[in-house]
UniProtKB/TrEMBL annotation:
<keyword id="KW-0472">Membrane</keyword>
<dbReference type="InterPro" id="IPR032098">
    <property type="entry name" value="Acyltransf_C"/>
</dbReference>
<comment type="pathway">
    <text>Lipid metabolism.</text>
</comment>
<feature type="transmembrane region" description="Helical">
    <location>
        <begin position="342"/>
        <end position="359"/>
    </location>
</feature>
<comment type="similarity">
    <text>Belongs to the 1-acyl-sn-glycerol-3-phosphate acyltransferase family.</text>
</comment>
<comment type="pathway">
    <text>Phospholipid metabolism; CDP-diacylglycerol biosynthesis; CDP-diacylglycerol from sn-glycerol 3-phosphate: step 2/3.</text>
</comment>
<dbReference type="Pfam" id="PF16076">
    <property type="entry name" value="Acyltransf_C"/>
</dbReference>
<dbReference type="GO" id="GO:0012505">
    <property type="term" value="C:endomembrane system"/>
</dbReference>
<feature type="transmembrane region" description="Helical">
    <location>
        <begin position="314"/>
        <end position="336"/>
    </location>
</feature>
<dbReference type="GO" id="GO:0016024">
    <property type="term" value="P:CDP-diacylglycerol biosynthetic process"/>
</dbReference>
<feature type="domain" description="Phospholipid/glycerol acyltransferase">
    <location>
        <begin position="99"/>
        <end position="221"/>
    </location>
</feature>
<keyword id="KW-0012">Acyltransferase</keyword>
<keyword id="KW-0812">Transmembrane</keyword>
<keyword id="KW-1133">Transmembrane helix</keyword>
<keyword id="KW-0808">Transferase</keyword>
<feature type="transmembrane region" description="Helical">
    <location>
        <begin position="22"/>
        <end position="50"/>
    </location>
</feature>
<feature type="transmembrane region" description="Helical">
    <location>
        <begin position="62"/>
        <end position="78"/>
    </location>
</feature>
Length: 378
């Protein structure tokens, strides 16, 4: 019941956790925490507050540029520094700007490898996730998730559906790029969760799946219901790893994975029913296909229709790293060693980000022209 490839006889070996990897991993953690913190402190008041009061569209455009620049560090880390090979198979992706992505959820870092696709298609800054609300409370990154308008859910239909409807309705503009990523299983895969899922499937007459959990269909249905007329396609991603499924720290220290395999099915919107019952059945069929793909992957070590990989540019990697580090060093210098007004700016920015994230506050044009600016409880 594995989907990470280690049953295959040609498996790659785990990379050892050497002192060099430990030191490099600690440096990487320091870089990502410091760059994320300083980018949020210095860019958020301008892009997510000041500019948003003038134009939500322009605010999102600027944020996507900044976010895409910072986020590009991660795919470069995986592939260039860690030496992880990303293997694509299935349908080619034409680089569309408005898509819904659905994927299996095998480990805590599946969502990070969607970035490797988006970077190649020039859409990295447009990614938004439907994610569990507890992640919004993470230090620093919770601020980022709020600024980037990720959609938090509690996994309770009566609570989540109004939030989904409200936030998705703000993404309906067909001219505004959007890569919306959804993991319909709702949680990462474990053997125990799989057994519970199979037991439930037997009770309600649904297929028993061995490599994925039964998908929760309502979230997918709401996304289609609200965005159906503005999306180009659905990208159905099936992800597997060699030699084993990685954790976040495996990525940081570069011990795993050696290979990430991503199988892509591109489905035009016209081929997906917009009726809730029929779209739920379509999603269930898609997860049965995922289950079969993952079983075959375990036996054969690859997905069908494997395509030649598109290598990331080392020059772009170095240039991106140089820009992000240079800006971060400048912001640190301004905060610690320059005029006191920068300390005040950083303090006020941190206070605003804490307030906005906790109260789910996002300003909009005309907000302060009313008697009161209401906090939006999304």
């Amino acid at each position: 019941m594995e989907v990470c490839g280690h049953l295959n006889p040609d498996n790659l070996k785990n990379r050892p956790l050497t002192p060099i990897r430990i030191l490099r991993g600690l440096m990487i953690l320091l870089v990502f925490l410091s760059t994320a913190f300083m980018f949020l402190l210095y860019f958020s008041p301008v892009a997510a507050l000041g500019l948003r009061l003038l134009s939500v569209h322009q605010s999102r455009r600027v944020i996507s540029l900044i976010f895409g620049l910072w986020l590009a560090l991660w795919p470069y880390l995986f592939e260039t520094v860690n030496g992880t090979t990303v293997v694509f198979s299935g349908d080619s992706i034409p680089g569309e700007k408005r898509v819904l992505l659905i994927a299996n959820h095998r480990t805590e870092v599946d969502w990070m490898y969607v970035w490797n696709i988006a970077l190649r298609k020039g859409c990295l800054g447009y990614i938004k996730y439907v994610l569990k609300s507890s992640l919004m409370r993470l230090p620093i990154f919770g601020w980022g998730f709020h600024v980037l308008e990720f959609i938090p859910v509690e996994r309770k239909r009566e609570v989540d559906e109004p939030v989904l409807l409200q936030m998705l309705s703000s993404f309906k503009d067909p001219h505004e790029p959007l890569w919306l990523a959804l993991f319909p299983e709702g949680t990462d895969f474990t053997e125990e969760k799989c057994k519970r899922s199979q037991k439930f499937a037997a009770e309600v007459g649904l297929p028993a799946l061995s490599n994925v959990l039964l998908p929760k269909t309502r979230g997918f249905g709401v996304c289609l219901e609200v965005l159906h007329n503005s999306l180009d396609a659905v990208y159905d991603l099936t992800i597997a790893y060699k030699p084993r499924c990685p954790s976040f720290m495996d990525n940081v220290f570069g011990t795993d994975p050696s290979e990430v395999h991503i199988h892509v099915r591109r489905i035009p919107l016209k081929e997906i029913p917009d009726n809730e019952a029929e779209s739920s059945a379509w999603l269930m069929d898609s997860f049965q296909l995922k289950d079969k793909l993952l079983s075959d992957f375990n036996a054969q070590g690859q997905f069908p229709n494997q395509r030649p990989g598109e290598e990331l540019s080392l020059l772009k990697c170095i240039a991106t790293f140089a820009v992000v580090i240079s800006l971060t060093v400048l912001f640190i210098y301004l905060t610690l060693y320059s005029h006191s007004c920068f300390k005040v700016y950083a303090g006020l920015s941190g206070t605003y980000l804490s307030f906005a994230t906790y109260y789910k506050f996002r300003p909009s044009p005309g907000c302060f022209r009313e008697d009161t600016c209401k906090v939006k409880n999304q």
